[in-house]
Amino acid sequence: MKKQIIPVARGDGIGPEIMDASLEVLLEAGARIEPLFIDIGERVYLAGNTAGITDESWEAIRQHKVFFKSPITTPQGGGFKSLNVTVRKMLGLYANVRPSVSYHPHVPIKHPAIDVVIIRENEEDLYAGIEHQQTPEVVQCLKLISRPGCERIVRYAFEYARAYGRKKVTCMTKDNIMKLTDGLFHQVFNEIAQEYPDLEHEHWIIDIGAAKLADTPDLFDVVVMPNLYGDIVSDILGQIAGSVGLAPGANIGDDYAMFEAIHGSAPRHGGKGIANPSGLLLSGVMMLLHIDQSDVAERVHNAWLKTLEDHVWTYDLVRKGKAHGIDNYREVGTSDFAKAVIARLGQRPVELKAVTYAGRTAKIAKPKLTDVRRQQMALDGVDVFLREGKATATELGQALERLAGPEFVLTMISNRGQKVYPGGFPETFTTDHWRCRFKAGGSQPTHGAIRQLLGRLEQQGYEWIKLENLYLLEGKRAYSLGQGE
Ligand code: NAD
């Protein structure tokens, strides 16, 4: 059978050791892959390439589409872009899949029964990285959530659950506060859930949901979340499930995929041959599933479970075991751990749950997306953000009321989201950053009318720092209200 060429980055720190060990196991198990080693990471950064990846490496990834990556070291100091973020965004890897499994009692942990897959949106949210200093006192980070972004990740979560025989998909957001952004994510989740009547679905507010997940992980199955929550929660879960050295990850897009452990390059341990290759090896298992080699994936995963069960442990697990009074283990380095897994190929665990992957794949056909681009948007007013360091809320409000007309009326001013005019309290703390809401004063607002308003503000010496147009989408208000509006 033809072998699939896989671009492989051996990475930095512990990267080369764990990659060599993982590839040895995958190839011994009969993986039909041919590694194509590519250059990325610290050496590339330090050679003056601020992205950390050469053109040839990009070419190899784009040609072969599936990328197996060891952790890399991002050099200290400014100017170096995060390679992970660059690769995810450039290749449209919108789904970050992070399974967390406990291996109790062989890896002692507080929660014996964790088997949760976090599916984290990977491209949007606050991670768009759009930040601005708006006034001397205030900086802003834009939280961007798109309908196609929500649809792709939510559908992926349901398809993943179905492909892997999972029962329930849970969504976590903070839509009681962020009604539009997180609200859209939740709404899309509810819409798409209707297409999967065979799967349970539920929604939790992220704060209590995350607390529940940390306390009773056995109540959860597949959990889908916007980027920031998913980043935080998956690390917490990885940590409570055992060692960071055990946790794999996949970054999946419509056309490309990247597989890597969730941990970093642990430079202090690099070159010693002691690191645990399990996270990367299990990422390799996810990769084999992605390229339809579920037979090999199952062989590797079950041999690995048997190795763990036989207490053949790298130092991180030894440390954990000792702390729990377990002393019947064999401590091995990275390469001997790989050899121990190879020696168990064909075996299945006895106490830990064996995996069955026949025919399973999480590869999702390109999701169909709802076309909302032709929806009607009508201007309904404008929020003008002003820098103003001297006036009180009342002084500012009275002055702006005089400047609003004839096209607009001032309906409110807020400071850091708190309404301060009309009807504010003088005790409310304010900064030099004011949001001033102007609504139509009778006629339909126009962009020209907004420009005239800005002209009047400028003439009176007001520094407007940003505008947000207020729209009705298909006749419905599409902006948040200030209190009391
Ligand atoms: P880290 O995950 O590399 O290491 C933290 C600690 O976890 C280590 O000191 C070690 O005790 C333990 N550990 C991690 N992996 C292990 C393994 N396989 N086996 C045994 N123990 C393991 O985090 P860090 O020290 O914050 O970051 C080090 C470097 O890694 C930084 O340059 C960072 O930018 C980079 N990093 C890269 C990636 C990536 O490439 N995907 C991800 C995170 C961090």
Describe the 3D structure.
- This protein has 485 residues and is α/β, with parallel strands linked by helices.
- Helix content is 34%, strand content 22%.
- The chain has 3 domains: 1-93 and 250-364, Isopropylmalate Dehydrogenase; 115-240, Isopropylmalate Dehydrogenase (3-Layer(aba) Sandwich), CATH 3.40.718; 377-477, Alpha-Beta Plaits (2-Layer Sandwich), CATH 3.30.70.1570.
- The protein contains 14 helices and 20 strands.
- The strands form 4 sheets. A 10-stranded mixed sheet has the order 2-1-3-12-11-4-5-10-8-9, sandwiched between helices. It has a 6-stranded antiparallel sheet with strand order 17-16-18-15-19-20, covered by helices on one side.
- A hairpin with a 2-residue loop joins strand 16 (408-415) and strand 17.
- Helix 1 packs parallel to helix 12 (334-343), helix 9 (278-290) packs antiparallel against helix 10 (294-309) and helix 10 packs across helix 12 (334-343).
- The protein binds nicotinamide-adenine-dinucleotide.
- Nicotinamide-adenine-dinucleotide is lined by residues 14, 18, 71-74, 84, 244-245, 260, 263-269, 275-276, 279, 316.
